[in-house]
Each structure stands twice: as structure tokens, then as C-alpha cells.
Amino acid sequence: MIRYALLFLLLPIVLFSQSGSGILTGSVRDTSGAVVAKARVLVVNEDSGVSLPTASNESGLYRLAALGPGTYRIELAAQGFQRLVRRNIPLQVGQTLQVDLTLTLGEVQTTIDVTASAPLLDAQSASTGQLIEREMIEGMPLPNRAATALVVLTPATVVQSQGGGGENLPIFSVGGGRMRNQQFNLDGGNVTNVVGLAVPQQQTSLPMEAMQEFRILSNNYTAELGHSAGGVILLSTRAGTNRFRGSVFEYARNEAFDARNFFAASRPKFRQNQFGAAIGGPIRRDKTHFFASWERTLQVTGGNSQQTLSTPAQRAGDFGGTFDAAGRVIPIFDPATTTNRVRTPFPGNTIPAARIDPVAKNILAFWPNPNQPGTITGANNFALNTRPQFDRDIFVTRFDHQFRARDTLMLRYYINDNASTNPGVYGESLPADPAATSAQGRTQSLLGAWTHTLRPSLLNEFRLGFVRRKNINERPGRDGGYASKLGLKGVTDVAFPIIGITGYNGLGAAPFRLQTPILDTQVQDAVSWFRGKHAFKAGFEARFGYNKDETDTSSSGNFAFVPQITGQPGINASGNAFASFLLGEVNSANVIRPDVIASSAGYYGVYAQDDWRISDKLTLNLGAVSYTHL
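The structure assignment produced for this chain is given below.
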């Protein structure tokens, strides 16, 4: 697939780059408007002290790429002109900012110091998007402390969920695209779901303390972002500075602080504690810096589980007290007596003890007894509070180092370990409780970025990224031999069999699903060349994904029971599914154990683009991109 983009921009120019890094560019002129070539330009990050030199070219233009978000100053010097220092230049994630400079004739020893003010609007940018700044991240209350949940504030974004669960990822659409169909770049590296094998959704949920800022692009991307059709999210982690700074936090939620739902008798249990710390600073001033953050989430939620269970009389075969909504006894019939679609009712509406299936008799012990009266039909005769628990740790660390003026290195590591358990409501019958589950997840992301300046007008950026994930969902009592203990044959002993009974709460559920490992590898390289009024950039990207998925749907058996088997054919108000269960009369059954699926996918792509500054009022952006899917 090949896409071409042709964009016209009026100055001032504010474009957006792929990597999550920013670009400072502009012209150098004297007070008469004449261009000044070969002026020495030094760009300094005012927080970290890292400095990068360049020079204006023969057209009087300078350009410095691969800059992280932050506040910069520009120091400018040229023979015969006073030295110029322009401070307080904020550069945002993925932004190309034009800063034009004017030199004044005079002695070099004289310095003109200017404090810059940031442009308030990107009114003439070709890319349509929204920046979420650090101040917004720090100042806005977030229910799950997931910074990307602030996408709800951006135009052209429709949010389905602000995040939750182990990965705490918001679900949204951008610019009319599909849900879960965006490309996510963190520090210039991919953090989108495994390529070609799953929906393109974010896979790293940065805590508020670790997120510097992020930008949402809805359309008109540059050529290097041409692979996304549903929006691009550029995220940046925080980096260390020349000052040691840290924080400790605790964020608590409790149902005692919540208002009761008007229709609820009480407030459901909700206890959430999120706590952690962050620290950053210099290892070597002006050269080497670090940042690290840790966040832990402990959460207990609760609710009332209303269920319909069989009564002790029904478990003994006595259905004389089983009524319909009008208070009439529902008759049950013996399927063994069927003749010409007519059956004989059980005497006294009771199944003889000798007719109760031995496997059914063994299964009966795994249901708790009703603990409340229920309705006249016996519905909702069991109620108990649930208590699901969730535990998550997220650790993010970043290391930045400048070997020399020409070479910088960035390493970033992210890990999210999470586990959730739901003990259900059946107590000692935990393996049979359909609500009882256990899940574990882990997401790891590692990115390395090396930027090398070959000469002031020629720059190379190389990135190598890895994402490794696992998702494990299991039921308690796995490999407990329950099927054999119950007397079932022809099925595995992996889990408790699934029992479905129309009108009653059943037992068991799918035994497990294991997704591990889920791998995504990305390699990127880009060369930027600045000549005359042209800023060329060309590069390639390759991504490779792998997913191993093992699922047990019902290898221990899935059995369904319906009332029609103990009903009179043609009479709807007869029969009972639990009576059919006691007789062992299965309506349908299956044993499903899918094959282990190990799948892989990938693509590689190349792109080229040229930002041609035709005049001070017009810049032409040309780009082409080609992707080949493997």
C-alpha cells in the first residue's frame, strides 16, 4: 500500500514528528532582513543542561531534531554580531517549532538576552490534534490514575471507557475511526497491541507520575505515521533533570465517601488504594540523568449476587412445592414413559430416589442451600456479597546519557504486573462456582534510542523496541480430578464440568486461557538531512509479532438441561430443568479443546518526506510511504 501526502502550510510553522521527539527550526537574519549563514547555534535543555550544537546553512536556516519535550534556550553567535540568548522556549512532544532569530551588529562580547513566549495556538498546523500537558495530568482528578484517560477532554474523541482492570487502558475512537484502532508511540517506540494479530490498542498504561505529556493526532499525519487509519497517540515519559526531585503519594477511594444509588438499599463495597513514589535527578550533571516511578494498586470491590438455586426438597426429587407465577404446581413427567408423544406424570410430583442419576447425586453437594425465601416461583432465593480483589504494580524507569555533543542515548523500561481473583460466593465449593476466577497479567516494554549527528545538517535516529506480554485466566481447582470423582467418563480431569440448567444457576465455567508469550519487536531507523530550504527525512520501520494462545473451552464436559425433557410434549407449563438434571437426561453436551495456536505476523515499511520552505509564508510538505505486510 502506498500513500502520498501533499500539504500546504502558512507560517508560522508547527508540524508534528513521528518519534515523539521535537524539532526546533527557524531562520537567522540581521536587522535588515538579510540571512546570516554559518551562525553558531547552541540549543540547551534548561532542565537537564544537555546542549546540542548546530549552525545556520547557506540559506540562513537552522534545524535541530530529536529533542525531547521540555524548556529550551537557544544561544546564537556570529562574527560581527552581538551574541543572542533566547530563553524559555517550550517544546512539546512530537512538535516542530519554528523560532526565527534576529542578530544585531556589534561586539561579540555583548549579549542580548531574550525571554521567549510560547505560541498559544497551532492554528496553521496541518496535523489536527490535541496536546495533554504535564500541568493537566497533575491537576485533573483521575479515577484510575491512568494519564491517557484524559483523552476524554480532546475534541473528535469518543470515549467508551476511561480504563480499568489489569492494564487500565482507556477505550476510545479518534476522528470518527473505530474503537481500539489507534497507533500508540511511547518515546518514539511502539506500544500498540501485537502487530497483525490483535486490535491495535495501547498496551502500556503510564501512571500520572511517569507521564510527561501526550498528543493525540486525528488526521494529516506525516509520511512516517502513515500506517495508522484511526488516530495516532504520541506519549512521552518523564526524564531526569539537574535537580533531584521526588514525590510520594497515596490515593484512596472508599464506599464511605460515595453516595448511595437511589435504587439500592446500601452502597456496594469499593476499597481502592493507589500509592507509590517517583524520583529523578542527575547521575552526572549536564550529561547523565535518570527517572523512576512505582505505583501499586490494591482494590476490593463488592456487590450483591442474587441467584436461583434448587431447594433441599427438589434435590431429594420432590417438586410438589414448585409453583409457577400463578401459584400452580408445575407437573413433571417421566420421559421413560413416552408413548405417542404422551408421558406419565411422576406420582406425587416426586422422582423416586432410585431414579436419581448417580453423577447428578454427586454434583448436588457443590451447590449451597438457599438462604432466603425468594419469589413464589423460587427465584432469587440465594443472595450473598461478592468480594473480587485486584492487585497491580507498575514500574517505569528511564535513563538518558549524552556521550558527546554528537551522540545521545535513551533507555526506557516499563513493567506492569497485575493479578485479580474472584472467590465467588459458594465458599468450600469454590471449583464449581461459575463466578470464581483467577487472572494474571504482565506487560513489559523496553526501548533503546540512539541519536547520532554526523554533521550539523545530517542526523541519524535508531530505535529498537520490545514488548512482551502474558495473560493467564484460570479457574480454581484446575487439574483437581473432579470429573472422575463425580463419575463422569470420556472427559478430562482438568476442571469441574460445566452444568447449565434452565431457570437455575449452574456450575463450572471454561477452565483456562493462556496467552503467553505475546511478543512485538520493532526496529526503526531514520536519516534527516537539512540542505538549503529543504528538510529531507527518510527511514524504515519493521515490526514482528508473535502470539501463543492455548484455550480449554470445555474439555471436562459442558452439559445442558432443559425443562422439556420432563414436560408433557405440547404443554409449555410443565416440566422442570432441575428434574431433568436429576434424571441425568442431558439435552446437549460438548467437549471442546481447541488446538494451541501459535501465530505470527509483521510488516516492514519505508518512507520519505521533504519539508520545503519555499518562502517565509509558505512551506510545502511532500511525503510518500510504502508498507509490505508479511
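Interim note for the steering committee: Helices lie at 134-139, 312-315, 358-363, 482-486, 577-582. The longest strand covers residues 512-531.
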